[in-house]
Design goal:
This protein is an alpha+beta fold. Helices cover about 30% and strands about 25% of the residues. The protein is built from six helices and eight strands, in the order ααααβββαβββββα. Strands 3-4-5-7-6 form a five-stranded mixed beta barrel. A hairpin with a 2-residue loop joins strand 1 and strand 2. The protein is globular and about 65 Å long.
Length: about 230
């Protein structure tokens, strides 16, 4: 088995199959003598810090008797609010967080947390220090999830998920499998959602500025205070 194939297999087992271009470029930047374990560790770190809509493979192209592995995507009709409830049993989708909202916090408190986060090197933490994992989460948390194909869906905690909260960065990767969808919303709970980590600085900056502007407009509106 070649290094290319072995690394692709290892990453696919983590539900992070990269595009051929990404894999080729990555291996070209590494020393030929680098052990597979080290190659895999660094590749996972870089993929978790990347925009998966550009780094993960989403199409399987046949080559003789074999085909390239590709990332699983959310069902095309996942946002259909007419469906009361359904379970997607065979799914194992890696998605990146494109936005979040702590439903237990007021808008003014969220805005202050975002502004204070800029003074801590961009780390967004809302709430009281030491109030638990997830950066002081009251919860439940609602998150906007995006799969490798660019498909987006909102997810909401029905039971607390470790690491899911205001302390995570935009672009943070989560693995969602065997999940239930109710009225176009993915129901998140332990065993269904696992936080993998990562952060995409460009996505984070854009989201933070947009979210602050949105919160200010809502707070300035009549009768919509935090």
């Amino acid at each position: 088995m070649t290094t290319n194939t072995a690394l692709l297999t290892a990453l696919t087992q983590k539900h992070l199959p990269p595009t051929k271009t990404w894999l080729t470029t990555y291996l070209a930047s590494q020393k030929p003598s680098t052990p597979l374990a080290a190659l895999t560790h660094t590749a996972l770190y870089r993929l978790l810090a990347s925009d998966i809509t550009t780094t993960l493979s989403t199409t399987s192209s046949s080559s003789s008797s074999s085909s390239e592995p590709c990332a699983q995507l959310f069902p095309a009709d996942i946002n259909d609010g007419r469906v009361r409830e359904r379970r997607v049993e065979d799914a194992a989708v890696v998605a990146q967080v494109r936005g979040w909202e702590d439903l237990g916090r007021g808008r003014l408190e969220e805005l202050r947390g975002l502004e204070e986060g800029e003074g801590r090197g961009g780390r967004v933490v809302v709430g009281i220090e030491g109030e638990g994992a997830g950066g002081g989460k009251v919860g439940p948390v609602r998150v906007l999830l995006e799969d490798a194909g660019g498909g987006r869906v909102w997810g909401v905690e029905v039971r607390g998920v470790e690491g899911l909260g205001p302390g995570m960065g935009i672009g943070c990767k989560v693995l969602v499998r065997g999940f239930c969808v109710a009225r176009g919303v993915v129901l998140l709970e332990p065993g269904v959602c696992m936080v993998l980590g990562g952060r995409v600085e460009g996505l984070e900056r854009a989201w933070r500025e947009g979210r602050k502007g949105e919160l200010r407009r809502l707070l300035e509106g009549p009768g919509l205070g935090g």
